[in-house]
Amino acid sequence: ASSIASGEKPELDDFRNLISQKIQNETKLSKNVLCVLLETTKSMAKLIKLKKDTVWAFILKNIYKPLFLKDQKFDVVIGNPPWLSYRYVESTYYQSFLKGLILKEYKLLSSERAELMTQMELATLFFARASDLYLAKNGTISFVMPRSVFVGDQHHNFRKGVFTPRMKVVKVFDLEDVDPLFRVPSCVITAKKGTNQYPIDAIAFEGTLTQKNAKLAEAMKSLTQTKKKLEYYEIGQRSFLESQEFAKVLKAIERGQRSPYYEKFTQGATIVPHSVWFVEPVVHPKLGIDPTKPRLKTSQRAIGKAKKQYADVSMEGEVESKFLYQVATGSELAPFCTATLQIAVLPIEPAGAKYRLVRADEAQRKGYSGLKKWLVNGERVWKEKRREKATKKDLYSWLNYANKLTNQSSKAKFKILYNKSGKYLVSCVVANRRTKLKIDSSEIGISGVSADDTVYSFDTNELDEALFVAAMLNAPIVDSLIKPMQSRGQWGERDIHKKVLELPLPRFNRNNREHLKIVDLAEEAQAKATKLVPELEKRYTGIGKIR
Question: 292-299: long-range contacts at Cβ-Cβ below 8 A with a sequence spacing of 24 or more?
Answer without folding.
Answer: 292/320, 292/321, 292/445, 293/318, 293/319, 293/320, 293/321, 293/370, 294/318, 294/319, 294/321, 294/324, 294/439, 294/444, 296/345, 296/374, 299/342, 299/343
